[in-house]
Amino acid sequence: MSFSAMASSPRRIARLPKRKAPTGAFAASQAAMLPPPVHIPAEILVVIFSWLQAIVKSDASKSIAAWQTGININSWIFVTHVCKDWRQAALEYGSLWSNINSLQPLGLIMSSLERSKNVPLDVRIAGTSNEIAEILLENLPRIRDLTYALTGASPADAHGYLEQLWAQPAPLLESVSVLSTNPATSPIPILQGPHPVLKRVNLVAFPVPWDSLKLDGLTELGIMYLPPEYQPTVSQIHTILLACPNLNALGLTFAPPSATNDTLDADAQLIHLPHLSNARIEMSAQMWAPLLQQLVLSHEFKWIIEIPYCPSRLKDRLIPIGDLSATGQALVVTLSVNGLDIYQECMSDPGPEGTKQKIGLVWPQVGPNESIQVAFDNIVELVKNTSWANATSLRINFAGFSVEEGTPIMWKTLFEVFSKLNRLTISLHILNMADPEFGLAQALMIPQKLEDGTMSFLLPDLRILHVRNGRLMHYGIQARAFAKCFQARQNIAPLQEMVLINSSSIPRAVLQSLKECVKVVEERDEDPTDSEMEHLEPTEKQRQGGASGGDDGNSDDWESDNGEGESD
């Protein structure tokens, strides 16, 4: 049986074609020759029903998005119409009736509440009258998983009654997702009674009185699209996160803190979230900076922040406190036309996806003329005073079509933060109009006084330099600057390996000078990567032969898999 067939199995089982019974004397003779009918034991029927129930159940049916498109409601009522044995087995098996959808007829809802007996309920409420919503919420003490989509205005007299229903104890409740499509909805106090096993809460445009909201011990928290007048303060979210040390997923989507003077004290308690592996913040993240700085995370997390514009300089650190050394002290920075990503790359065996820490900044309104110096300043502000500044390997991807030349001061600003690098990789887009790698050699020649009082240069531990698609050797002055740079560093901070990929041919005299002061100097050509091929003209793609290589950077997938499915 295919999955699509299984998805409507209760209805299909009840409608299997039936052979017409013979009539008259012939029927009697045939009946005498046939063996007695075989009755499937009730225990076997229950096993079959349980298996089919597991097949048709889909986690996607729990998503709030599913309510906005309409759902084909399946019901086990069909199997009760097959025969007496099937009906008896189905009616006695309470789990068959524990998934209740408010789009079902009221009579079936009432029957399901009765037939499910004491089995925990999975309830979906959406787009229905207050009568059905109230009937289902009256059973809150029995509900395990609740999705409540308030798609219309509630009468004033019903509002108080809903508060009473939400105040009931919920000893079995594990997951709650609530949505309001009515921007005029006033705050509704929810989860006022005890809910000792609650793990997952998602609030979508659903205003709640934050001071009275009781949340602790959560593993998943999502707050999205809140009207300005109902946004929480930094202190209120700080209190919630302190009470949820097992949190593994956090989402703050266009739900900035309330525009008040509420701030955290300088000695505010740090929030230890060792299990947090996925966080997404989409808003003006600067407003959350005081909270983000209080987070202490494990070495394995993903962090993305969307801000509406490119700031000239970030005023606050947005990276949580983490342990960079756990994944090999390797960072990757990707600069694009509308933002930048910084993520931590595992240098040991990373597995299929790698063990990474990642922070992404996205500003959609920025064009390709945005200053690289500004981007570097923001990287510095993000990283300084964090463990990420201790990185020993740094890869910088210029993924956009840069039109700005690099400068020594730009690179100096970056190297003063990443002072412990021993490996530097620079990758430029194949269609770059400018040369952001310019000024690199001059910056590496800037003297620096070490802690022991001796003199050296910026990045005194730098031993490996790789450049992809760069044109630093195309211009004689830049080529000679690199030769002069590594000659000067040879006795104090010698470079051991220099690899130039898809770079212009090095003049023979410069190449000889480099080989005299760098142990390994290599030139090689490679095909464009997939990300570079996407931006080539069709004729250029054909000339390149359609070849592709590994991804040079921004390849992390931030979207979770939310496949759609049918409701139970």
Class per helix and strand makeup: alpha/beta
Overall pLDDT level:
72
- Give helix % range: 25-40%
Please state the CA-atom Rg, rounded to the nearest Å.
32 Å
Distance between the termini: 18 Å
Number of helices: 17
Biased composition (Acidic residues): 553-568
Region (Disordered): 522-568
Biased composition (Basic and acidic residues): 532-543
Task: Describe what this molecule looks like in 3D.
The chain is of the alpha/beta class. Among the domains are: 204 residues, no CATH class; 133 residues, Alpha-Beta Horseshoe (Leucine-rich repeat, LRR (right-handed beta-alpha superhelix)), CATH 3.80.10. The chain is built from 17 helices and 21 strands. The strands form three sheets. It has a 17-stranded mixed sheet, covered by helices on one side. The chain has a two-stranded parallel sheet with strand order 8-10. The longest helix is centred in the N-terminal third of the chain and has 15 residues.
